[in-house]
Amino acid sequence: MRETLSLLLYLVRLRVRTRLEFRASLVIAWVAQAFGYAGVFTQIWLILTRFENIGGWTWPQMALLLGFHTLGYALGACFTLVQLRRMEEIVLGGEFDTLLVRPLNPWAYLVFSGFNIEYGGHIALGAGLIAWALPQLPIVWTPATLALFVGGLISAALITASMITIIGACAMVLGRARYLFGIYFDFWELSRYPASIFAVPFQIALLSVIPLGYMAYVPVSVLLGRPVPYLASAAELAALAAGPLSVVVAAAFWRFCLHRYQGGGG
Amino acid sequence: MSAFLALIRAAFRRESEHHSRNVFRILGSLVEILARISIWQAAFGAHPALYGITLSQMITYSLIGGTILSSWDATMIVRDVGATIRTGAIGSSLLRPVGYPLMLLADQLGVRLFDWLLVSLPVIVIMGLIYGIEPPASLGHAMFFLGHVVVSLAILMLTGILIGLFSFWVFDAHSLEWFMRGLLAVLSGGLVPIWFFPKGLAEVAHALPFSWITYQPMAVYLGERDLAASALSLAAGCGWTAALGACVAFVWSRACGQVVVQGG
Fold first, then answer.
1. How confident is the model at residue A243 (pLDDT cuts 50, 70, 90)?
2. Is the pLDDT of residue B174 over 90?
3. What is the pLDDT of residues B11-31, one digit of tens each?
4. What is residue A178's three-state secondary structure?
5. A92 touches A263 (CB < 8 A)
6. Residue of B85, B261, B58, B264 whose CA lies nearest to B168
7. What is the structure's pLDDT at B171?
8. Phi, psi of B18 (to 5 degrees)
9. Which of B15, B23, B38 to mutate to test the interface with A (most CBs of A within 10 A)?
10. Can you say how many angstroms the Cα of residue B234 is from the centroid of all Cα atoms in its chain?
11. Where does residue A232 fall: left (phi above 0), alpha (psi -120 to 50 degrees), or beta otherwise?
C-alpha cells in the first residue's frame, strides 16, 4: 500500500514537472480558462444588476454559489477530466489493454499519471469569488459551518470525480462514450444556478440520479440558511454524504464495466 | 465552388452518422434551453414585463438565441485548427485544391447546417410548444432576420477561423479557444441581450462585430428595430463580414509563411 502510494505520488510529480517545462503556456492557459468562465459569470452578474435577484438569490449569494461550484469542480476535475475524457481513444486504440497488464490499478494509473495542473485559473476564480462574497453575507461561522464549508467542497470534488469516472467507464462497455460528456456538462451548467428555479423534475434529478445539485446548491443554501426543497433539515448531512456515496457508486460501476470489458482495440 | 459544396455535404453526412450522439445533443440542447428559460422566469418573477421587455420576448430570445444563433460550439474551429497544426496534418491540408480557411469554413458550415436541421429545429419546436414562441414582428422583420442569420453565421465562422489561425504563432489553441468563449459569451449577447447591459459596456458591445452573432438578429426578429434600422444593421453586419474576411485572408497569407514541412 505504501509503495503504491509513493508510486502514485511519483507519477503526479513527473506530470507536474513535465507541465512546468512550459511555464508561460501554463500561465496563459490559467488566464484563458479563468477569462472564459469570467465571461459566463459576467452574464449572470449582468442579469442580477438589472433584476436584483434570480429566484430570490442576490449577487453576493450567487457569487458564493458560483465560486463554490467552480472550486469544487476544479478540485475533482484536475484528477479526472482530461484523463478519463480520453477513455474512448484509450479503449479503441488498444492502450487500455496495456494498462491492464501493469502492476497498478488502471484507474489509479490514469488518474495520477495525468494529474492536470491547468485548473489554476478555475481555482483562483472560484476562491476569489468566495473570498469576495463571504464578508458580504451574514454567515455565522461555527465549527459546524466551517466543517460544512470544507466538507462540502471535498464532497463537490468527489461528486465531480465520480461522475467523470462513471462516464469514462462507459467506454469500456460502449466503445464510444465521449459524447456522454456533452450531456454531463449540460447538467453541470444547470447546477451552477439555484436548483429551486428549475421545473420540479429537474430539481428532483439534480438531487437524486444526477447529484450535481449537491456540488454547490445544497451546501451553499445550508450555509446561507435558505430552505432546500425535498431535503429540509437533512440538507446538511446530504451535502456532506453525497460525495462519498457517489464515490462508492462510481467504484462499483467502474468494476462492473471492467468485468465486461472485452478489448476494444487491436 | 463544387469542391466547397462537396466539403459541406461531407461534413453534413459525417455528423449524421453518429445517431446516439445526436440524440444526446438534442437532449443537451433541451437542458440548456430549459436553463435559460428558467433563469428569465426567475428574474422576471411575477412581472410579465420589465424595462420594456416581456417575459415572452425573453423566452423567444432564449429559444432562438440558444440554438440557431448560439456561439458556444464555434470555438471548436479553434480546437480543430490547433490539432491540425500540432499533429502536422496542416502539411497535407496545404496540398489540397481548396484553401485551408475555405475548407474550415465548409466543414463548419456542414456541421452547422446539420445542427440547425436536426438539433435546433426539434428543440425549438418542442420548447416552443411547451413555453410558447413569438413570431417575427412583421414579414419585413422576418426577411431581415434571415439576412441577419447569414451574417451571424459568417461572423461567427470567420471569428473562429481568425482566432484559430493565431495558433500558427502561439501553438496553444486551447487557450485561444477559452479566450474566444469568454469574449463571445458576453459580447454576442448570447444569454443577456445588450439592452440589459450597463451603458458603457453596451457601447463597447455595439462597437464590435460580435453583437451580430446573437443580439442584432434577435433585436430585429423581436421588432426592437424598425425596418430602416434593421436594414442599416444588416448593412453594418455585411461590412463587418467583409472586414473579417479580409483579416482572415491577410492572416492566412502570413500564416503560410510559418509552415515548415520536415520530411514526408
1. very high
2. no
3. 888 888 877 788 888 999 999
4. coil
5. no
6. B85
7. 66
8. -95, 85
9. B38
10. 16
11. left
Condensed to tens digits (0 to 9), the pLDDT of residues B127-164 reads 999 999 999 999 999 999 999 999 999 999 999 989 98
What type of residue sits at position A212?
A: L
CA dist A200 and A186 (Å) reads: 17
- C-alpha distance across the termini of chain A, in Å: 32
How far does CA B84 lie from the centroid of its chain? 22
* Residue with the three cell numbers 440589459: B196
Distance, in Å, from the CA atom of B103 to the CA atom of B129, rounded to the nearest integer, reads 38
Burial B104-126 (b: 16+ CB within 10 A, else e): bbbbbbbbbbbbeebbbeebbee
The verdict on a CB contact (< 8 Å) between B28 and A182 is: yes
B24 and A29: CB-CB below 8 Å?
no
- Give the CA count within 13 Å in the CB-facing half-sphere of B109: 19
pLDDT band at A45 (very low <50, low <70, confident <90, very high): very high
Q: Which of residues 42-101 of A touch B (CB under 8 A)?
A: 42-43, 46-47, 49-51, 53-55
Give the integer Cα–Cα distance in Å for B69 and B10: 23
Distances (CA, A) of A34 to A194, A201, B23, B175: 22, 32, 31, 10
Cell (9 digits) for A259: 468485468
pLDDT in tens, A66-84: 999 999 999 999 999 999 9
Instruction: Give CB contacts under 8 A, 24+ apart, made by B204-212.
Output: B209/B155, B209/B159, B209/B237, B209/B240, B209/B243, B209/B244, B210/B71, B210/B155, B210/B159, B210/B183, B210/B184, B211/B187, B212/B148, B212/B151, B212/B152, B212/B155, B212/B236, B212/B237, B212/B240
- List the beta bridge partners of residue B54: B49
